[in-house]
Design goal:
Order of helices and strands: EHEEHEHEHEEEEHHH
Largest sheet: 9 strands, mixed
Distance between the termini: 7 Å
Structural class: alpha/beta
Number of helices: 7
Shape: globular
């Protein structure tokens, strides 16, 4: 049976699919990347796609940007058609917003490597393959929990780290698609360094601290990412 491509919404040039693309290549999944930053239009419908993956970006869901509203429309269309949706950071916030939840400033920003704890009496282990794990974060906003969603994981400074809707859709506040190149790009950019320097949040690590932790924590992060993507792929549509 032929496989349909996975639609990937990429909002900015330095936040691409990263490890998700590596995983897709290893498992013979084709990605159709919609490069919003390059002028690509958000598709109006999900026919022809196996799943929908939405990536991050520095903007807020609450910003009056047409492509954000178009992405929410596409997410709702995908969910109505039982096309699995996977949201990373801004993408997770867009999934929450598409389901009617509020996106607000987080009590504390998180930048760097953060320990995540899953919630007992949920199916979190089937998504993450672990009860606790380190994962990379870069966010100042956070999502409320939509009606009917199941909260799967939390961190010290952000209770709503991941939720599922039904058996197909997963929203994450974190960046499980992270790679060493993305971390270097973000932490060496003028904007990234300025954001870290200006933050007073206890959830924001220094550039040096982030880089010192990456060699040991990135392999753990990518094992969790593989578990997430493997579980999510169970719902992908085919022709």
């Amino acid at each position: 049976m032929a496989r349909l491509p996975i639609a990937v919404i990429q909002n900015v040039p330095n936040d691409g699919p990263g490890h998700f693309a590596d995983w897709a290549d290893r498992h013979n999944h084709t990605l159709q990347i919609i490069r919003i930053w390059a002028g690509d239009a958000v598709p109006e419908q999900v026919a022809g796609f196996a799943g929908l993956c939405v990536l991050g970006g520095p903007m807020s869901v609450n910003d009056p940007l047409p492509h954000l509203r178009a992405t929410e429309h596409l997410i709702r269309a995908a969910m109505a058609a039982d096309v699995p949706v996977l949201g990373h950071c801004l993408g997770g916030q867009l999934l929450a917003s598409a389901c009617g939840a509020t996106i607000r400033r987080a009590p504390q920003a998180e930048i760097g490597w953060v320990d995540i704890a899953t919630h007992p009496a949920t199916n979190a282990n089937t998504w993450f393959g672990a009860e606790r794990f380190p994962i990379f974060q870069w966010h100042g906003d956070s999502f409320d929990l939509p009606a009917g969603a199941q909260l799967l994981a939390s961190s010290e400074h952000c209770r709503h780290q991941a939720f599922s809707v039904g058996s197909l859709h997963l929203a994450m506040q974190f960046h499980c698609e992270i790679t060493a190149d993305k971390i270097t790009d973000w932490t060496t950019s003028t904007e990234g360094r300025a954001e870290i320097s200006a933050s007073q949040s206890p959830g924001v690590q220094s550039v040096a601290d982030i880089h010192s932790r990456t060699p040991s924590l990135l392999p753990q992060s990518q094992r969790v990412a593989d578990a997430i993507y493997r579980r999510w792929a169970r719902g992908l549509r085919s022709t």
